[in-house]
Amino acid sequence: AIPVTSSKTARSARARRAQGIVKTGRQKILAASFFFQGERILSMAEEGVKLQTKGRVQCAVSTEVDGDIFSFRGGSTGIVKILEPVSPLLNYFEYLILDRGREASIGIGVGERNYPTGRMPGWNRNSCGYHADDGKLYHENGMGRAFGPTCTNGDRMGCGVDFDTDCGPDHVNIFFTKNGRQVGEPVRMKKPIYGLYPLIGLHSRGERVHYLGHWQRTADGSTEPMEQDNSPGSAWLRCNQVRFLDDGLTVEYAGHGGDVQDIGIAQARFPIDRTNHYFEMEILGTGTHGALAIGLAKTTYPLHRHPGWNAGAVGYHADDGKLFVEKGHGDPFGPTCTEGDTMGCGIQFSPCGAEEAERWSSGSEGEDEDEEEEEEEYFEDEEDLFSSPDSDYSDDFLGDMLPRGLRPPRRALLRAMRPALRQQKSRERAGPERTCTVYFTKNGEKIGETECKVPSGGFYPVVAMLSRGEKLRANFQPLSG
């Protein structure tokens, strides 16, 4: 229960409950929606190899997230879904059962991007799951089949996706583990167009699990340790619908190629800074459409969108020579590029002192630390907005504008004004926006440049493709630039 010390606090608490917001510690859960969980260190539990990424979590109303601890709050079935698709670099994840609860109705698996939060893993189409209470496998069906042992307190349940199979580019093999040992045989499954996402299902009171992270593992039970941090194979942070060849810097499209959002994308694990300020990609194959692109993006950029189509990114596209800056339609910019051409992207830094250089290398400028405090003040502002007699949105103002019978409800006005209030609060806290000059090249010749807003956390190199047969080779240490 939320302690109430005044009428204003009571109103604020009621408003938060009415909007489905539950505060537990330092995180906020939006009922039937998702929250941004912040930067996470995903570590290999036994081998000690650490991968850095940022993740979002979507959860049902009946589940609760506290850092890496997922628990069941009561009510109907609920899942927690990590909104980062399983990729060849991070193809395996595990959970530790802290408390089996009343019935041990815990399930682990993968599902499509829009998998419903009220269904256990494997119950619906484009999903597969292994359940702890009965040891059964559920594959696109609410009726499971005998598969493996049951699981209880202290057991680790794992799920992995084997992309390197003889099933063809449209299918993958799903495998499961208990305490590190593979359970049953891998299950062949058609790969959804937007990839497969990690799922953990909870169904009885008292259930709690600990998310242990992602790493790379083969279906036969052996773990593949990542290479040293300075090797080409460890250059990538996030990826989707791509395949890495040779030393890891050659990237090949591995998607369906039948949809404008079926993007194959790879994002480097290091940010653009004063040391690494320029990179290139050589086009080895143009495929069906030659829709390759190079650019920069924030670390939470959606993996099904071309560079520059969404906020927090900029991209130069090979097929039409257009520049895309935070929008889905591009502007004429430079020549088109084809097989054999080399496309480059970099940032021009103005002279600055040590403090400015530190800001670029650290990225966030302390914004994450203020996020929770900002959210609290934001809700207080909403309450004050309609209670202050001087407010433009008070009853007196509404009465002057509209007859009483036509006045919109206060809560409706509040919802309509929420984005503007949030943006205003963010601008007040952030102060002047950071901008930078991003430039692009073709075969070593500068094409042009553009001014871009620097996202919180900085810019990271990205390369992308859209049709079968496309292939590129990235170079993060070119001689030019």
List keywords for this structure.
single chain; 481 residues; mainly beta; seven-stranded antiparallel beta sheet
Short recap of the structure:
This protein has 481 residues and is mainly β.
Describe it.
The chain has 5 helices and 31 strands. The chain has helices at 7-18, 354-362, 367-387, 395-401, 410-430; strands spanning 21-24, 27-30, 34-43, 50-59, 63-66, 69-72, 78-82, 92-100, 106-111, 127-131, 136-139, 145-146, 156-162, 171-178, 181-190, 197-202, 207-215, 236-240, 242-245, 250-253, 264-268, 278-286, 293-297, 313-317, 322-325, 331-332, 342-348, 435-442, 445-453, 460-465, 470-475. Helix 3 (367-387) runs antiparallel to helix 5 (410-430). The chain has 481 residues and is mainly β. Strands 3-4-7-16-9-10-11-12 form an 8-stranded antiparallel beta sheet, with no helix packed on it. The longest helix is centred in the C-terminal third of the chain and has 21 residues, at 367-387. Strand 14 (171-178) and strand 15 form a beta hairpin.
